[in-house]
Amino acid sequence: MTNSQSTGKAAQSADVVVLGAGPAGLLAANLLHRGGIDCVVLERADRSHVQTRARAGFLVANTVRILDRHGLAGGLHRHGRQHGTCEFRTAEGRFRLDYGGLGRGERHTVYPQQDLVTDLLTHYLEAGGRIHFGTEALAVHDADTSRPSVAVREADGRPGRWRARYVAGCDGRHGAARRSLPPGALRHRRDHGISWLGLLAQAPPSLDAVGYAVHDRGFAGHMARTSEVTRYYLQCERGTAAAARSDEHIWDELETRMYAAEHGPLNRGRILHRGVVDFESDVIEPLRHGSLLLAGDAASLISPSAAKGANLAVLEAELLAQALIADLAHGDAAALERYSREALAHIWRAQEFSHWMIRLLHREPSAPEGESFFHESLRLSRLESLRTSRTHQDWFAENYTGV
Ligand code: APR
After folding, report:
1. Active-site residue 141, yes or no?
2. The CATH classification of domain 193-279, taken from the options 3.40.50.720, 3.30.9.10, 3.40.250.10, 3.90.400.10
3. How far, in Å, is the centroid of ligand 1 from the Cα of 298?
């Protein structure tokens, strides 16, 4: 296989054109290729960007099982680290939840997403899979027919076109797949009114747990990425510029909100990356529009509050690849409809828990005048129930580690 840049020649073709080389696109492409399906991945970024982009990194047990099933989990078994404890910090003190011993007894595997994407890409290329980097999908045409095509801008800037039997839209929230949905496509959405300043720090983790701090000044979060890099989150006002605060100011604010005076200082270091994420969720329904299928962020957006995005992307990619193989190789015409129904059930479960987490960790941002105290009392009651009720803790553990 050559990693050829598209030459901009006349229409090229594949049975399945996969848009996007993120977790969803690359897992789907690996499974399709292995299933004997003629597929190609079109990715607008270059290979280096795809392999180094720091995103999520908190994999649930089911994600590990899926990757294990297909022999794609070698890297995460070698370098991933198990996590099974949350520490909630409030003005009343702190409590730890060893969720790895609750619910189904499952833990997370911490494994940086860029490493997972690199593993998936390496497996795909070594198996002879086709991918075109630097190729931006502009639109999906004729998705309502059995001969859709994808208009692209080739790496050399020239226009091109790919013909397919199916197009797997795995190109995220701003990709061509979403832009090409028919006018009637349902998009259920919610703006939670919360924003986080996400930070990646060159500093060892400060806790041996996932830290969730609930403070009058706002939420702060702590999630280890590696032994030398830690992800922090600071709730911020909508519209905050990522570069607005100095590193020192950020560390001071993190320590204030994580009650460092009572529980000890944070390990400080250089902030490598900053980015503001607004908590918007949405779900496209259904996930099949003729010959265009959606998976990952192209299918639904979920807030980072419960770290579900990459896990949903992996689950949907396996379901989609299995459905496409059933349709193309075994003539199962109902497989793709089943895919949409089954994936949506998982999406809504993850959305519901993510919504619950948002309201556990943040004051109600849009409480009508005079109702703030009522909402805040509900929130504190949720936290207290989580601290004291084994049944609630089992429910939390099952959903926190589930997808
Ligand atoms: N043409 C080609 N490629 C595109 C286009 C386009 N028009 N638009 C976006 N892409 C590529 C991006 O460069 C990226 O590599 O599609 C890929 C989408 O990858 P992700 O955004 O990671 O989406 P997905 O695979 O669905 O994974 C989503 O993983 O990043 C984590 O938690 C995050 O929820 C998110 C999950």
Report:
1. no
2. 3.30.9.10
3. 8
Task: Quote the pLDDT of residue 9.
Answer: 58
Give the tokens for residue 258: 């994580």
Q: How many CA atoms lie within 13 A of 206 on its CB side?
A: 23
Supply the pLDDT for residue 11.
Answer: 79
Question: The whole model's pTM is what?
Answer: 0.93
- The amino acid present at 331, given as its one-letter code, is G
The answer to whether residue 9 is catalytic is: no
**Pocket of ligand 1 contains residue 131 by CB under 6 Å:** no
Task: Give the DSSP letter of residue 305.
Answer: G
Sign of the C-alpha dihedral, residues 27, 28, 31, 32?
Answer: negative
Q: Which atom of ligand 1 is nearest to the CA of 152?
A: 1
What distance in angstroms lies between residue 21's CA and the mean position of ligand 1's atoms?
Answer: 6
> What residues in the chain have per-residue pLDDT under 70?
1-9
Q: What are phi and psi of 327, to 5 degrees?
A: -70, -55
Residue 1: its pLDDT value, please? 34
Give the H/E segment covering residue 398: helix 390-400
Residues of the chain with CATH 3.30.9.10: 193-279
Q: Which CATH topology does 12-57+112-185+286-356 take? A: FAD/NAD(P)-binding domain (3.50.50)
Of the residues 212, 233, 259, 339, which is catalytic?
212
